[in-house]
Design goal:
By secondary structure, the chain is of the alpha+beta class. 21% of the residues lie in helices and 29% in strands. It is built from 5 helices and 14 strands.
């Protein structure tokens, strides 16, 4: 069902090879492309700052540190210990990304979320004005995202089984460069700005893990979005926050319950 104010899927249309090249000049020779003018990009760092600022204006207090374990009174959560300090709360939402499963033993449930390393490369195409260039998806699991002032991003590797190794690798960088140049050989003259690497919370069945933990009062999970965390994370957070605070939940999230992983 289309939401009010959202663009219609009918805005997706085929463009010729020449039109595709005009929209994205570095593109390789293609037979044609599908173009959707309403596609949007998200700067994750700006979004995180905006979410934090908005939450702070509504009373959020932030405690920085490592969450060592949950505080429990029988089968009810009473808070969490953060770097040796007890922070008390009536509900705790575990949204620890690839590190969420560290609470498995204490909760007595299997949280089937593993780290999946991803590497991306930022390029400088100055003096080209890249802000109006579209996002490019060439069906190999990689993408090209453009930003103003000559910045172009290519990525990303999906290194399942990487463990918690947050470092760049020769193979990963080569994969990103090779795929980027396959799709857009015009990037060959770009200047390399930076390489970024991170760990996605990759779920065993490809679906997020959302909702309450059965048998323990006040503990909730919001994790396992894999490579779609920027797109789905804020909405998932809203759903789980509504659940934790006793408000009506707009969407049925039972399919994402952690209970599906239990033997």
């Amino acid at each position: 069902q289309q939401q009010r104010g959202t663009p219609a899927a009918a805005d997706l249309h085929a463009v010729s090879a020449a039109e595709a090249k005009e929209l994205f000049p570095p593109l390789t020779d293609v037979l044609g492309a599908l173009y959707y003018r309403h596609a949007a990009r998200v700067d994750g760092r700006l979004m995180a700052r905006a979410l934090h600022s908005g939450a702070t204006s509504h009373g959020l207090t932030t405690h920085y540190g490592a969450a060592e374990h949950l505080l429990m009174d029988g089968a009810r959560v009473t808070g969490a210990r953060i770097d040796g300090d007890d922070v008390h709360a009536g509900a705790v939402i575990i949204a620890g990304g690839a590190w969420s499963k560290r609470f498995e033993d204490q909760l007595g449930v299997r949280i089937a979320v593993e780290p999946q390393r991803g590497q991306i490369i930022h390029w400088d195409m100055s003096p080209a004005e890249t802000g109006a260039w579209p996002i490019v998806n060439a069906f190999h699991g990689h993408y090209i995202v453009t930003w103003p002032n000559g910045r172009v991003v290519t990525g990303a590797t999906r290194e399942t089984g990487s463990g918690y190794n947050v470092h760049t690798s020769a193979a990963g960088i080569r994969e990103v460069i090779d795929e980027g140049l396959r799709v857009a050989p015009g990037l060959a003259t770009a200047r390399l700005l930076e390489i970024r690497v991170g760990l996605r919370p990759y779920p065993a069945d490809g679906l997020p893990v959302l909702g309450a933990v059965a048998g323990i009062d006040g503990v909730y999970l919001a994790t396992g979005h894999g490579p779609t965390g920027l797109q789905l994370g804020p909405y998932s957070g809203k759903l789980v926050a509504d659940l934790a605070t006793g408000h009506a939940v707009a969407t049925d999230i039972s399919a994402f319950d952690v209970g599906r992983f239990q033997a």
